[in-house]
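Good morning C.,

I know you're traveling, so I'll keep this short. The sequence:
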Amino acid sequence: MERYAKTSAISVIILFTFSCTYFQKEIYVPQTPELTSSLEAAWADIPPNTTNAGFWTTADYVEVEVTDIEKEQLSPDDGLLNVNGMYNGLADFNQGQPAELVLKAAYDHENLYILTTWKDNTNNASKGNWLYNGPADPLKDGDTAGWTSQRSNDEITFTFERNENSKDVWKWSLALSEPMGYAIDMVQSGQEMMYDSGEKLFERNASGTDPYRSGPKYEWNGDQQDVQRELSANTILDPGYYLLNKSEITADILNGEARYQQRCSFCHGDNGEGGGYFYSASPSLQEQGKYTRLTLAALDNSLADDSVHRGASYWRKLSLEEKEDVVARLRSFSGYPGYFLQTPSGSSSDVKAVSTANLARIGSGSGAGYKVLLIRKLQTGNEDDIQFNISQIRDYVFSIYLTDNDHRNLVGKTDLHLNFK
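The tokens, ready to paste straight into the viewer:
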């Protein structure tokens, strides 16, 4: 039953003549949402476990005025480039437009629910993509020859104070957690950040020990990536951005690069930028996800078709192994996903997430923003989690941070309060 406020000033008296008895019926109207100074969690009779649950239309809300938390920071890691879309902080976040960050909260006998909405004009769903001979970083020096890791994603992070030296961290990541229907659960102790126990949501897709220069180990195996999610709707993951159904890469990227420079670069440019001197109208090959979401068979059919590919006659002369090598080079223009996804377990699976993001064919174009619902048990019993014991404590301190296509810089607000009403 949704929450209603009793209208005390207005009532309707209905007279029934039967047995000379009078009956009074009170009219109930939905509560008007109120702006509050802290995040007020109200009791919900029915779990508001969807982003469009009726409860949220009448829930009180807090508007968070975000400020710069950390800016002008560059990743010190070698090979990690072009991951600082918020180098100037708020001036870069959402292309300089207001975040309009709004929070609502609820609880029932079992769970805490936090609904968050904010504006973001671009959807950034990649993190640490593998690019071969990729673009230089205008903010950071670094050799771009061979494999580098580039691009970052959109995130929102909650940190709850556990004690003076420890925080419980819930991070919703469009690239790493949303596809599986969770938030990343971590513990911050001092300056050290650790993942909660159990199997986490993702692993680095690296072929060697160097996480940013060794190159990818896996690629999409061609099977549709269906995900059965516990709370949010089941979905299909776009293989141009997400890697779930995978197989090991066997192609030779060096041979693919050599073949590309011999035959393809005249039309498509040395680095796939398009507009080569043989054919100035040739398209760029650098569109994110373009080739990582296509199977070898699909690419083979397209590239061998004279009506769609001016180099079809050359392509048809290649052996299957050579085609695989050239396709690897094409995929390295688009960017292999930097991580592969998996189902979490243990304490790493505590925080569920539901959002309005469309993951079947995601893009980095215009978007209205995000609506994300985080759900976690009030008391998990896990040592690495904060426990909401509302019979004893009804006020909890937390901070919130937003990231827009960035690996290090943050905007947000600290020392907020969550109150259980």
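Safe travels,
E.
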